[in-house]
Amino acid sequence: MTDAAPLWFDPALCLIDGRWQAPAGGETLPLTNPSDGSPLCQIARGDARDINAAVAAARAALEGGWGEMTATDRGRILSRMGQMVLERCETLAQLEAMDVGKPLTQARADAVALARYLEFYGGAADKLHGDTIPYQAGYTVYTLREPHGVTGHIVPWNYPMQIIGRSVGAALAMGNACVLKPAEEACLTALAFAQIAVEAGLPAGALNVVSGIGAEAGAALAGHPGVDHISFTGSVRTGALVQQAAGANVVPVTLELGGKSPQLVFDDADLDAALPFLVNAGIQNAGQTCSAASRILVQRGVYDQVRAAMAEAYSKLTVGPALSDLRLGPLISTRQKEIVEGYLAKGADLTIAAQGVLSDAASDRGAYVRPTLFADVAADHPLAQEEIFGPVQVLIPFEDEAEAVRIANSTEYGLVAGIWTRDGARQMRLAKRLRAGQVFLNNYGAGGGVELPFGGVGKSGHGREKGFKALYGFSQLKTVAAYHG
Ligand SMILES: NC(=O)c1ccc[n+]([C@@H]2O[C@H](COP(=O)([O-])OP(=O)(O)OC[C@H]3O[C@@H](n4cnc5c(N)ncnc54)[C@H](O)[C@@H]3O)[C@@H](O)[C@H]2O)c1
Ligand SMILES: C[N+](C)(C)CC=O
After folding, report:
1. Residues catalogued as catalytic
2. pTM of the model as a whole
3. FRET partner for 439 with CA separation of 20 to 30 A, picked from 45, 171, 194, 209?
4. At what angle do helices 71-87 and 160-173 cross, to 10 degrees?
5. Closest residue (by CA) to atom 32 of ligand 1?
6. CA 83 to chain centre
């Protein structure tokens, strides 16, 4: 680790029942810095035994101090955690940059987003309540909003802080006790978050964190009969496995999966306003973003202009080590680099409109690829259909609104869509017709905005996280019908 980001916790331990402890198997896994391939540290290789202990600790917390705490007091702790995240912002950003390969500016924004989630859900903890319901004579009927109980949170490596904030933050606000399984590729900020929770006075067992391999600790959590709800963020393939495992115990699952999100640019669009969003939403976090706008659909009348402007922007993109804070860092791993290079090879028959450049500091030991913009891509080409999870965007021309909608809705995903047009009626029509969980009109937020409900349709998943509405998903309703004559 660097002096700038010293670890003030031991990453080779799991947080269970408020205590950092060695995993039952006594084994560790290496974390690697994707910017140069150097070893970062060892993390705990938790397994089913640690998950069992974590679930038991969470259950005990619900029956003890955490379960008895008022919503207002829960909110206060979350708000305190948010403040502590802000105080540690620079350290957290450095850890995320080294662990994920994310440029420092983006990592800083993620730390601030984590703080915002904690503030937002801290403030919301005591705002959601039940109703009274008019019923038959002699009755008083009301509903209680209650936590699910023990919630499992399985998160990926690409935005650890943001995803932990939105799912664990909302779950704790509603009074659940959480078991978090971060990704084995990058989990330092998940562990730092756990330490912050301890320091902020979160009662023992309310948050338990077990790092480890997906097929071991993750599968044990997904299939655990003592868990009452699972929030999973990751790939479609793993999401299906998690849903199946949880389904065997009739446990509800929220799935936040992948995407192939489009931005639609019409002839009447404000192109100057659109350009930064078209490019940035494709290359943010080196394209390893579920809501990346990897398809840019452009109407014929402005197609050449958009292509030229994007190509110029691409030629200025520089890739380098995360701590040098260029526009793009490396991919998470050499394995991910091979996957992206495989897609670039599949695009050998296509026209490359432009590519970014590697900085001199981007060594062979890092997982670097040049951001690549393909032009004139057919809507059914694999590069226009499959999630690549790298800095690759395709330009697809269209004639009219009907064709734009058909192409936009032609993938198996439906996470986010952007529409660039000055025509208000078209904005309203398309906002309804596009299959996506979020639609942005004349802007594009690649998942930004803690206040905005987020989630997918189709293979992008189901359920909604973020925003106030997420609190409904992390709680359940009990109806109380009192007969008093
Ligand atoms: N919709 C969203 O909000 C969102 C956000 C970020 C990433 N994603 C998606 O995540 C994917 C990339 O992330 P990834 O490669 O880390 O995904 P992944 O599915 O490989 O891993 C995600 C998590 O699942 C765990 N896991 C792996 N196998 C498991 C199993 N059998 N049982 C239980 N858990 C298991 C992993 O350890 C990790 O913690 C992309 O498809 C991306 O679009 C979606
Ligand atoms: C929504 N977001 C950006 C936090 C994560 C997507 O990968």
Report:
1. 256
2. 0.97
3. 171
4. 160
5. 219
6. 21
